[in-house]
From TrEMBL:
Acidic residues composition-biased segments: 38-48
Residue segments, region Disordered: 17-49, 825-852
Protein name per its UniProtKB record: Uncharacterized protein
Biased composition (Low complexity): 828-849
Length: 1014
């Protein structure tokens, strides 16, 4: 059902609209208009249907019926009722409109009758002082109204004209592609953006969010929040010119138009191009109306190169004009500037847009590097591929053009249709996409491999697997993405069905659904776990530059494990997973530019009209707190601890409003869901809370939460084991969304409770430092806590500053690190020489297992056991009994005291390791990789240090088997690489093309000594 205020406000809109030619003053009505956009996108969209799609709706409804049936009879209230019922019946059964829409139409009608009366009243006042009006005059008014209504709905042109006049509707323009009348459409982007930014709320969200992001990264340069924080932004010509530009992302998606009764599915395919203002905050970015349509074209036309060029010509012209001249809007003094950042699409569309080959099963299928299909099975520990570079790319394009685009040259088939777009380059502007590469790519692939292993090991039959997935009870938050039943036939056909988010949900819950057999999946469990760790990075909203090297070692491990265990499943997307270091380093967190897929798709005109409906509202976005299942609750009926909590917080209310679900900033928050309240310590451990009540306290919704104690991280389940600790707290709703903007579920395995988190989110010392006093006061209402907090915080900041200072003393490490990351992925000789030392398995495992470190990290015997295989490695740099001669005193103290390490300790440990390994302490790459690796290790293991707690001890014994697994992660550090890595230089076209080969090799050599030319 449409909420009452939704229809009411719509009516007000209509009222002011329909009466704008008359004398009724509706100004104050307009002022009162608050947010009205319904949360139910689908409903309001179909509502449009009834308004605009004259082809589908029989408008004769409004003219014929009265005349034919009722004209001759006397018209009574009862016949009016009958007539109206007939009308509704026709809407319901004749046109199959849902009840919600019918209700909305009805309420429009009643408002229109009110308006009609006001018009008549007005007429009466004008014609005489006596409030009497002749039937003739009433007749005139009604006739005028009838003509008006008839005119508007007479044809599409008339309707659209009104939309243009009143609501800033921008009509899509035709692009003639050839003389056969084939065409596409585009929407002038400047007008769209102008309409959008003329809304005060939109411009405010944009500016606030940009400023917020920029000040965060200024305070903490290691942090990556947006495209601005990647290396690509430094070369972006538009950003160079105007660093304060808003970022414009483009993205494309294809849809199939099907006649539901017809035989062929997806018979007509359309490609749609959208723009998105990247700087909008996340909670509005995900809303459908944040996406503006740029162009639409039947997909088959775009497969021809000349058509592509023609189609994008006006779009590029528009975007370039916008980037060079900027915009002036009503809501902002001065000129706004814009910069194109990225183009997100699935791999096929990206290759089409980039002018790369569209075949992924041969030749050079990657748009970032020169990998060749035939080498995809070689573990990346043994080979690496040259990245594509701007200079060589130009010559490949030229060669492909000379060949009339008949065959690929090093994977390039021709010029990109966007090559004239300012700030676009084929090898830089088409990043990998999370949704396609992970959720729809490798995740279902690994799920399938795991299920196949379950079956191959005769742990379960396909039918039992089907049953198991079907009967699993999903948590409240995961319920939304519950995957469809996977049938035995799907498994036989290697096909996991469902949407991207459903596939990701299934992937996430695999260890819970199959917890009783998961330990026996010796082939696939390691791969799964490794992928989970990779995903915990790629799906982060914030990324750290210092994570990059460790992250890269994870992706290399993943690819190598695949090559070893599941070589037949090495599809190109496995390779793409290993490209995320480059992608993220250049463009910022991958979650900023993934393809969001919306359930409801609207075509060019429809999309524009929807936009226009939104624009007709005073606020473009309707960010309000919505509540469901509201009921009052007595103080006395709350549990005693909650009562005590309220009293402690000086709340003396006797009765509260209570509810089960709150939509806060577009996030559904439910009772019993788990949220991350904050992160603690250097390893950024989440502090979970579970929501007990939503209570309205002094007119503000607050959450009564119970703290959950983390007992340990179970790597097999890839989840935190938690315990309810019976301590309660009163929190603001926004505070719960600060770190992870959605709720989590608790799952029980063998009586223990677990929280399953997909990405690693973190808060940083700098944010803490800038926390203004007022916020501190709200966070910690009690003076004692506040003092404690401020003390701890100052201590933390001091340590943090020390580290930064020390780093600065060592030279500009941060700059170096961003430059050097490219170097290591090209595996140039100069870096491998130090890496070899690092990577030597015997070395890294042995010194980590040295006596001193055993005490600190509690590595259990299994590690030693696991590592014995590696000892056979013939090439050894150090004796097997190598130990540090001495440790820095500070570290020794920590180890002796079994304390948790602080940021500074990690820094010292890393420095000590580097020194011991004879690596320069200024080698930022090595330092970062080692620090993150050690940190990760502690993060997953250090809970085992809590041997003092009896509860923990008990739990550990109960679920003790998992503790042995942790150690395996340490191998992931770098232990797997061989010392001699091959640099693969691709053969270009055929062997005779020596000249090109020389250019490429020269570049390879340059890359080793000078840096990358990008
Ligand atoms: Zn590649």
């Amino acid at each position: 059902d449409i909420p009452a205020d939704f229809t009411l406000n719509e009516n007000e809109q209509l009222l002011s609209f329909s009466s704008s030619n008359s004398n009724i003053n509706q100004d104050d009505e307009d002022e009162r208009i608050v947010g009205q956009e319904s949360s139910d996108e689908g409903e309001s969209e179909t509502l449009e249907d009834t308004n605009i799609n004259e082809n589908l709706i029989d408008w004769s409804l409004f003219t014929d019926l009265i005349n034919t049936e009722d004209h001759n009879k006397e018209f009574t209230f009862s016949s009016f009722e009958k007539h109206y019922t007939h009308f509704l019946l026709d809407l319901r059964e004749g046109h199959l409109l849902p009840q919600g829409i019918i209700k909305s139409i009805t309420s429009y009608f009643t408002t229109m009758l009110d308006a009609l009366f006001k018009l008549i009243e007005n007429q009466a006042i004008q014609s005489s002082t006596n409030p009497l009006i002749s039937l003739v005059d009433i007749g005139k008014v009604i006739l005028q109204i009838k003509n008006l209504i008839y005119d508007i709905s007479k044809n599409d042109y008339q309707f659209l004209k009104r939309c243009t006049d009143y609501f800033g509707y921008t009509e899509p323009l035709k692009i003639e592609l050839d003389d056969k009348n084939n065409c596409g459409y585009y929407v002038p982007i400047e007008r769209s953006i102008q309409n959008l930014l003329n809304k005060p709320d939109v411009i405010n969200y944009l500016i606030d969010n940009v400023n917020n992001n920029i000040s965060q990264t200024k305070n903490d340069p290691d942090l990556m929040l947006t495209y601005r924080d990647g290396t690509a932004a430094k070369d972006n010509p538009s950003l160079k010119l105007h660093p304060n530009s808003f970022l414009i992302q483009l993205y494309s998606d294809g849809i199939g138009i099907t006649n539901p009764l017809g035989p062929k599915k997806d018979k007509h395919k359309l490609t749609l191009y959208y723009f998105l203002l990247e700087d909008l905050p996340d909670f509005v970015k995900s809303m459908l109306q944040s996406i503006g349509l740029v162009g639409i074209c039947p997909t088959k036309f775009l497969s021809i190169q000349t058509n592509r060029m023609k189609f994008f010509e006006p779009i590029i012209k528009d975007l370039n004009h916008l980037q060079t001249t900027g915009l002036v809007v009503q809501t902002f003094n001065g000129r706004l500037h814009f910069a194109f950042s990225l183009f997100a699409a699935d791999n096929l569309a990206s290759h089409e847009i980039g002018g790369f080959q569209q075949n992924f099963n041969s030749g050079q299928f990657c748009r970032l590097c020169h990998i060749s299909y035939k080498f995809r099975l070689i573990p990346l520990t043994e080979i690496s591929f040259l990245p594509r570079t701007v200079t060589t790319h130009g010559s490949y394009v030229q060669q492909a053009v000379n060949l009339f685009n008949t065959r690929p040259v090093a994977g390039v088939v021709g010029e990109s249709p966007l090559s004239k777009l300012i700030a676009f380059h084929a090898i830089k502007s088409l990043p990998n996409d999370l949704m396609h590469d992970y959720a729809e790519g490798v995740c279902p692939l690994i799920v399938l491999a795991m299920l196949k292993e379950v079956s191959a090991k005769r742990l379960m039959t396909y039918n039992q697997i089907e049953q198991k997935i079907h009967t699993f009870s999903y948590g409240m938050n995961d319920q939304v993405n519950k995957p469809p039943t996977i049938r035995a036939t799907h498994l036989t056909n290697n096909n996991i069905i469902g949407s991207a988010s459903q596939k990701l949900c299934l992937f996430k819950l695999m260890p819970f659904i199959f917890h009783d057999v998961i330990d026996q999946l010796t082939n696939t469990l390691d791969i799964y776990t490794c992928l989970r760790e990779i995903i915990s990075y790629t799906y982060s909203i914030k990324f750290r530059k210092s994570w990059l090297m460790y992250f890269q070692s994870l992706t290399i491990r993943f690819q190598s494990l695949m090559a070893h265990h599941l070589p037949y499943l090495i599809i190109p997307k496995i390779h793409f997973v290993t490209e995320y270091l480059r992608t993220i380093n250049a463009n910022g967190p991958a979650t900023r530019f993934w393809c969001m897929r919306f359930e409801a798709f609207t075509l060019a005109k429809r999309h524009q009209l929807r936009q226009c409906l939104m624009l007709s509202n005073k606020n473009y976005y309707n960010i309000c707190t919505e509540i469901t299942l509201l009921k009052p609750i007595q103080y006395s009926s709350l549990p005693i601890p909650v009562q005590r909590l309220l009293t402690e917080n000086n709340i003396n209310q006797n009765i509260f409003d209570e509810c089960k679900i709150i939509y806060n900033k577009n996030v559904m928050m439910m009772r019993q869901s788990v949220f991350v309240e904050r992160l603690v310590d250097v390893e950024e451990e989440p502090c979970f809370v579970s929501i007990l009540y939503f209570l309205k306290i002094q007119n503000i919704w607050k959450a009564v939460v119970e703290h959950l104690q983390v007992i340990g991280f179970n790597e097999t389940l890839w989840a935190y084991e938690i315990e309810f600790c019976k301590t309660f707290d009163l929190l603001d709703l926004d505070q719960l969304l600060h770190i992870l903007p959605h709720g989590l579920d608790i799952y029980y395995v063998q009586g223990s409770a677990y929280v399953n988190v997909l990405s690693q989110e973190e808060i940083d010392g700098a944010t803490l430092a800038r926390l203004p006093y007022d916020e501190v006061r709200t966070l910690f209402p009690k003076l004692k806590d506040r003092v404690l907090f401020t003390e701890k915080r100052d201590l933390l900041i001091k340590q943090w500053n020390n580290i930064v200072n020390e780093q600065l003393d060592d030279g500009d490490i941060l700059n170096q690190s961003s430059k050097q990351t490219f170097d290591t992925c090209t595996a140039s000789q100069s870096t491998t020489s130090t890496q070899d030392l690092l990577n030597n398995p015997s070395l890294s495992s042995n010194n980590m297992n040295g006596d001193e470190f055993d005490a600190a990290s509690n590595i259990d015997d299994e590690v030693n056991h696991d590592e014995t295989d590696d000892l056979e490695e013939p090439h050894q740099n150090l004796p097997t009994d190598f130990a540090f001669s001495s440790l820095p005193e500070e570290i020794q103290v920590i180890i002796d005291d079994n304390e948790y390490p602080k940021a500074n300790d990690y820094f010292l440990i890393t420095q000590a390791l580097l020194k011991a390994l004879n690596i320069s302490t200024t080698d930022a790459n090595a330092a970062n990789e080692w620090r993150e690796a050690v940190k990760q290790k502690f993060k997953n293991e250090r809970r085992l240090l809590q041997n003092t707690s009896a509860v923990v001890q008990k739990k550990k014994e109960k679920f003790g088997k998992s503790s042995g697994r942790f150690a395996k992660k340490s191998e992931a550090l770098s232990a797997e690489r061989k010392s001699d890595k091959i640099i693969y230089v691709s053969t270009i076209m055929d062997e005779s093309d020596v000249e090109q080969l020389i250019i490429t090799m020269n570049e390879g050599i340059e890359n080793e000594t000078i840096h990358n030319d990008e």
